[in-house]
Fold this sequence. Notes:
The complex is a heterodimer.
Chain A: H1 2-15, E1 31-35, H2 47-62, E2 67-69, H3 74-77, H4 91-96, E3 101-108, E4 111-118, E5 123-126, E6 130-131, H5 136-155, E7 164-173, E8 176-185, E9 192-193, E10 201-206, E11 215-220, E12 227-232, E13 239-242, E14 248-253, E15 259-264, E16 271-276, E17 287-291, E18 298-303, E19 309-314, E20 321-326, E21 339-340, E22 346-353, E23 359-366, E24 369-376, E25 382-384, E26 391-397, E27 403-409, E28 416-420, E29 427-428, E30 436-442
Helix pairs in contact in A: 2-5
Chain B: H1 2-19, H2 23-44, H3 57-61, E1 68-69, E2 119-120, H4 131-146, E3 150-157, H5 164-184, E4 192-198, H6 209-215, E5 217-224
Parallel strand pairs in B: 3-4
Antiparallel strand pairs in B: 2-5, 3-5
Helix pairs in contact in B: 4-5
Amino acid sequence: MLTTLRLLFLLPICLFCQELEIRLSTRTPLKPVYLTGLHVPASEYDWRYFEELRAVFEFDLNTNGFSTVMPIQAGYEERLEWPDVKSDFNLTPWKKDHIPFVLAIQVLQNRLQLIAFDVENGTSKKYPDLSLTGRIEEDRRQLHRLADTLQKDLFGVQGIASLKILYTQRQKSGDDWISEIWVCDADGGNARRILSEKGYCLSPGFFPPAISKDEFYYISFQQGQSKIYRSALNKTEGEMMVSLRGSQVLPAMNRAGTQMAFITDVAGRPDLFIQNLDAKGKMSGKARQLYSAPRATQASPTFSPDGKRIAFVSDKDGPPRIYVLDVASPKETKRPAPRLLTKQNRENTSPAWSPDGKKLAYSAKVDGVRQIGIYDFETEEEIQITSGSENKENPSWAPDSLHLVYNTECEDICELYLIHLNQGEPVLISKGGADQKRFPCWESK
Amino acid sequence: MVRFIRFLSAASLLLAAGCVRNSSETWEDMKTAGRYMGRGVDAIWGKDYESRMLTSDEEFIGPYDDEFVPLRDSDLHNAYAMSDSPLPQPKGIPGQKGIPPLSEFYMAPDTLAALFHAIHFDTDDHVVREKSEIQALIQLASYLKKNPNIYLVIEGHTDERASAGYNIALGMRRANFVRSFLVKHGVDLNRVYTVSRGKEHPLAQGHGPTDWKTNRRSEFKIYQK
């Protein structure tokens, strides 16, 4: 009897399985890179300026998903002969220390010089000098472009450090809130407000490069109801892009720039609509109702890279989950049947289709906290890639389909984080403060 | 007897272990099931704020404008979709041709505050269920019918707990539910506008259940011509 009771007591404990966090199997080890101290014999600029430039470069190398920068060591610095680093470079000690790459940087006559040594292959490359302007915003951008080029040379994959991130910044203004469109570099630097129109803006997105460089769309409440607008990084105001009655929210454009999906209540309920666009990104023809369901709320569409499918959020079956449906022919007006994608967790929202079409990033509630998950279309696995007590949402893919940017939300604090699927640990890129950074969107290539 | 008790204990524990993942997920599952049961029961009793069987195609399809290409909802014909029957947006665009811009709408004066007080919702829900609030909406509809010079904006709000994107859509659903209710009780649909604020403009700034309940609301602003 006692034995039976003990067994019965233990049985449910064994059956109460906690959900395990599963990491992607694409993880590859990071290659160590020795980045020398920035050698500056003499310059008109302050040494702190050079410290910042080196830090920018180091950040890009540490977050590219391929390399990890080693700490500066006096013993390693002594191996290098400045200014003619290349001719005196000795591979042997670096090989002995298993350091595959050495990056020697120095500033000569206000020109930044980089020589990359591939120790394993015994080769080196001197990159074109960067002419430093003394303006940190411009010189940071130069370094980001250099980091991207270097990554392509060392690891065969173009970097994303030189791309921009759009986002919204929300702050108190008297008794009310305002939310404005901002842009920053991929490391969170050079952050600046774009639009001067006061009001409330949400969910910006870049136009695809096929249509326009530097243009973006966003939601604005300047007319009272939310409408879809367009503007550009060098403009201070926007113009209305979709003119339907009622409210329009959560726009997404396909990669070809020929269609925009969004949620609107023009028919009296928050349904998924699609609008054709012409070559200049202007409305072409009527908007078309794509999906509706009884007593359901639809949200957050995202296009597949080929533009043939849309993943979106619906609570038609209870808590919000992510479904996918085909973008039907314009002649098709029968309600389509979407396929449920995310089944593991509750409250799956904010889907974002990866540019390579193989994955979907989204926000899922796990043990009461919203985490970032990845749905793999090939294996149909749902994989959690973040942890911790802060809510996370609005993931956005970089063009390499390996980096994600998302925002956290913990009471009144919202920050932007960068994560590489191969590295795992997210990195804070926004600069703190009381303002809430949300709805990040990566520039496309 | 002892064997029977052992069998019952084992069966009960197995069932419990199989059904329960953790307490919050169990609670969410129960609420979801409860909502479906509630909808079914309400439909049986024909509560018209929730659903009823539609009597004709015309009533189902509604007075569509030609502003967009609609789905043909004939495959929804058998669904209890009263509260979801298409309801076009007002013909007049705010700020144009005599329609006041939404920026000029204001909170109702103190003399009318009781009539235009906020309406509240359950978590993840867009249907008004409190009898007192349903009654308040009926009274509001009656007042608006008698005062055709009043325009109304209904703002849909949510609490902070779901993502911002989903909440902006849920706020839209709530505002449109209230609009639909008022129109079905005789208010001119061309005088009622909706705006979703999602979780962007909370009334209560805290992060507990009481604050969440306060924030799950529809608010009204008016413009008297």
